[in-house]
Write a structure and sequence with these properties.
40% of the residues lie in helices and 14% in strands. The chain is an alpha/beta fold. It binds adenosine-5'-diphosphate and magnesium ion (MG). One of its GO terms (molecular function) is ATP binding.
Length: 858
């Protein structure tokens, strides 16, 4: 196959392809040794030749084959990323997950014995990049944003898109955009116009399903070569359950206990769906098999076995903990049956979201497990070293999975999908796969979100099983039947772009002058209705010019012409690493000194709810991602809202968002810290991220609003009444199409009826066919229900709930959302003023009349 690019010609004529190593590196001895075992290392030559001779190369290799850690090093050694070489630009590697970007940068820096300012990372909140950076790991979102300011990516000599098989939305868009950037850089180089060489693109994938990229003619006119790295994969025996049970959490514990007690040494990796399940399983396993549990057992045994001759030992035990020892002895002899019965009762009504249910008595849990497993509590001697892994876990705790377990113990990692492909955990020999994953599903038609636990794909199941075969032959226990697997599992997971709102990426594309989004070379195109909806949202926000077709579309949703051009406002909005709604709030935030507040608000909204929600405190049947509060008392949360730190912002109960604002303010006044977080039931990681995001957004604001003048304001003083009102107006501007109206206001169904709380009070939300309700966690929940609100989220559990609710004045809707309104002909009111009646949104809700001169046409 003849190389076609100018660059490739040059390589052929000037460099011998065999002279690949041009930069010397020194690796620590243990790394040199470990690298030898990686299958990809033997493929260095063919990989580098392919990269030098082709603009695009696809590398496929099983997880753990060394793609992420080694390919950047091959490139570095070949001279990419070194200022003195032929390819001086940075080596950029994108990851769909922050945790991978950070940990892989650290790993590669270590392998190359280079400091973090040479092998760096950049994620939304954080960066170690410097002018001397040679290798940069980043999230796919970071690179996508860089394209808006430098479409040629002139800093880079090569871009490596990692984990392409995951089909994250940003990765898909990046591949589409980069296919164009490559051509531009090549053309400019050929024409002698650019001082940067053509860009190389490497796409890496853990599965062989690359046809969406490789055989996509609109992406790459010449199909890129695909290099398969033969995995040094040991055989993994797959065991299906005969039956599929719904309580997969208990099944996972049972299976793990069986493996631990009956099978030879080797790490166990358990795949579950979320944090709740993971912390619950870790607790139960710890109670039974943890180091402390086994130590307790040993003591008990010693106590029971001890004879008069071992007088000293007995005395020791009795002396130190006489009462304790007594109770335990009693339990052992008499309490057994009772404990089982009790445990059974508790367990029958217990779900995993009920963290308190079994906390009281670890022994009970232990006996329960014994009974389920048919184990004698004394037949285990090897303790488990149990490590949880999920994305909300603090980074330093996430890193624990890479550490060797204490000698004589068995590593047990209880993980979400994170361990499926991004991270390779050493020493795993057994995989327990529940076959499910928790996914955020988003209904494109009405914006309702739901967290759903659903079956994974066959490809994912294969990935999970593969984790057992890295160190030697392994076993994968699937907690579902082979029939279910065959008939109900999809071959591959659906790309994210088909499942999530896309207004953010559409705005990014528009800011890169990609106007006709329908013609964009998506690896898997979203349907036209979704694109149309995204353009509509952007036009409501003022980011796109309201083209006539979009306006008509408000009335006739079938019209799918999309041609909106980015406005000045939209361009400003695209500078922020945020959802367009939040950027919209920022873009108008410079009045009345509101910027520091709105920056804090959008930071908190972007990071997500920092509050820990304890089941029972507020219950709606939601499976909160954060049900585990480590036994903290429930009243503490309420107490928090009475503490002296509290900002007056909360006092007027007009917005849930102000509660977030007040906790951000209080956190900074307290000087941050873990103690504050545990005292006030907020997640330390979330608070830390909010803090960093505030600083970062403040910098972007300062660079782009010369008049704004405020840098980062760490300590906020409470906003005044006027500011609170302006903040609610800004929230209205961002959530302009996420409006709900109390139902009786629309149909006069219960005119005159007095409500005291929001409980059971129906609202209509624009474009949503069913009634919605204010979530019980809202600050408004126990007050008189407001007539008009905007909201940040629609979540379906037992009902459709609105969350992040803010009380608004309907007059703001008609002035902020003119493109969503139609207006009646002006009529004279009793006092002689010209009034018009606005009708709002696709349902044509009648809003209170406003003065005709208040109507601004878009
Ligand atoms: P791939 O990208 O193909 O899945 P990686 O390059 O991530 O493979 O991993 C290659 C090897 O490097 C794995 O065997 C893994 O155990 C090891 N490794 C990766 N990160 C670390 C780390 N932080 N500490 C120790 N070993 C690591
Ligand atoms: Mg990898």
């Amino acid at each position: 196959q003849l190389p076609t690019t100018a660059f490739a010609q040059q390589v052929l004529h000037s460099t011998s392809p065999t002279a690949l190593i041009s930069v010397n590196v020194s690796r620590p001895p243990d790394v040199v040794e470990a690298r030898m075992l990686l299958p990809i290392v033997t493929e260095e030559q063919p990989i580098m030749e392919a990269i030098l001779l082709n603009p695009v190369v696809i590398i496929c290799g099983e997880t753990g084959s060394g793609k992420t850690t080694q390919v950047p090093q091959f490139l570095f050694e070949a001279g990419f990323g070194s200022s003195t070489s032929d390819n001086p630009g940075i080596i950029g590697i994108t990851q769909p997950r922050r945790i991978a970007a950070m940990s892989m940068a650290a790993r590669v820096a270590h392998e190359l014995s280079l400091p973090s300012f040479r092998v760096s990372y950049q994620i939304r909140y954080d960066a170690t990049v410097s002018p001397n950076t040679s290798i940069k790991f980043m999230t796919d979102g970071v690179l996508l944003r860089e394209l808006a300011t430098d479409f040629l990516l002139s800093k880079y000599s090569v871009i490596v898109i990692d984990e392409a098989h995951e089909r994250s939305m940003n990765t898909d868009i990046l591949i589409g955009v980069l296919s164009r950037v490559l051509k531009l850089r090549d053309d400019m180089w050929k024409a002698g116009k650019a001082d940067v060489k053509p860009l190389r693109l490497v796409i890496m994938s853990a599965t062989l399903r690359v046809s969406d990229f490789a055989e996509n003619k609109t992406l790459f006119s010449t199909p890129p070569p695909v290099i398969n790295v033969a995995a040094r994969q040991h055989p993994v025996t797959i065991h299906f359950n005969r039956r599929t049970r719904s309580d997969y959490v208990t099944e996972a514990i049972k299976k793990t206990a069986k493996i631990h007690t009956r099978l030879p040494p080797g790490g166990i990796l358990i795949f579950l769906t979320g944090q709740n399940e993971i912390t619950g399983v870790c607790r139960k396993l710890n109670a039974k098999f943890g180091v402390k549990a086994l130590e307790r057992k040993r003591q008990k045994r010693q106590f029971a076995d001890s004879t008069v001759e071992e007088h000293d030992t007995v005395n020791m035990n009795v002396d130190i903990q006489p009462a304790h020892a007594d109770i335990e002895a009693e339990d052992l002899d008499l309490g057994h049956q009772q404990a089982d019965d009790l445990a059974f009762d508790v367990d029958a009504g217990m779900t995993d979201e009920d963290p308190d249910a079994l906390d009281s008595d670890e022994d009970t849990e232990e006996h329960q497990l014994d009974k389920e497993l048919g184990l004698d509590s004394d037949d285990v001697d090897v303790p488990m070293h149990i490590v949880p892994l999920y994305s909300l876990l603090p980074s330093e705790k996430q890193m624990l999975v890479f550490m060797a377990p204490p000698p004589g113990s068995r590593l047990v990692v209880v993980s979400t999908n994170v361990a499926e492909t991004s991270l390779t955990i050493p020493g795993i020999r057994y995989v327990v796969d529940c076959g499910r994953a928790k996914e955020r599903r988003y209904d494109v038609a009405n914006g309702i979100q739901a967290f759903q636990v659903s079956w994974i794909s066959k490809a994912s199941a294969a990935q999970r099983a593969g984790r057992a075969g890295r160190t030697g032959p392994g076993h994968c226990y699937r907690l579902y039947s082979s029939a279910l697997f065959e008939h109900h599992f999809d071959q591959f997971a659906q790309p994210e772009i088909l499942r999530m709102p896309i207004e953010g990426v559409v705005l990014q594309m528009k800011s890169m002058h990609i106007n006709a989004v329908v013609n964009f070379p998506f690896p898997t195109p979203p349907d036209r209705a979704t694109l149309f909806r995204a353009e509509k949202v952007l036009s409501y926000l003022g980011a796109l010019g309201v083209s006539s077709s979009v306006k008509k579309g408000l009335m006739a949703a079938g019209d799918s012409s999309v041609d909106g051009q980015i406005t000045e406002l939209g361009r400003l909005m695209s500078l922020f690493p945020l959802s367009p709604r939040f950027s919209r709030m920022l873009a108008s935030g410079q009045h009345h000194g509101c910027l520091p507040y709105i920056i804090s608000i959008v930071s908190a909204l972007s990071v997500g709810d920092p509050f820990l929600h304890e089941e029972g405190l507020v219950s709606d049947g939601t499976d909160n991602e954060d049900g585990d509060v480590d036994g903290l008392v429930k009243t503490g949360r309420k107490e928090f809202f009475r503490t002296q730190h509290m900002h007056s912002a909360l006092g007027n109960f007009t917005s849930d968002v102000f509660r977030m604002l007040s906790v951000v303010g209080a956190y900074e006044f307290a000087g941050g810290g873990l103690q504050f977080c545990s005292q006030h039931f907020v997640r330390p990681k979330a608070m830390e991220e909010i803090h960093k995001l505030r600083a970062q957004i403040s910098n972007i604001v300062q660079a782009n609003f010369p008049s704004a003048g405020t840098g980062f304001v760490p300590k906020l003083v409470p906003p005044n009444e006027l500011q609170l009102k302006v903040l609610r107006q800004l929230l209205t501007a961002g959530f302009v199409d996420q409006v709900a109206v109390r139902k009786d206001r629309l149909d006069n169904s219960s005119a005159g009826l007095k409500y005291t709380t929001c409980k059971g009070v129906s609202y209509r939300a624009m474009g949503v066919p069913e009634d919605v309700f204010i979530h019980p966690s809202s600050v408004l929940a126990n007050r008189e229900p407001p007539e008009y609100v905007v909201f940040s989220e629609l979540i379906r559990t037992t009902r459709v709930w609105i969350k992040g609710v803010t009380v608004v004045n309907p007059a703001w809707l008609s002035s902020l959302a003119t493109s969503l309104c139609t207006f009646s002909k002006p009529t004279k009111s009793i006092n002689g003023e010209l009034m018009v009646v606005p009708r709002f949104g696709s349902d044509g809700w009648e809003l209170p009349a406003i003065k005709a001169d208040k109507v601004r046409t878009p």
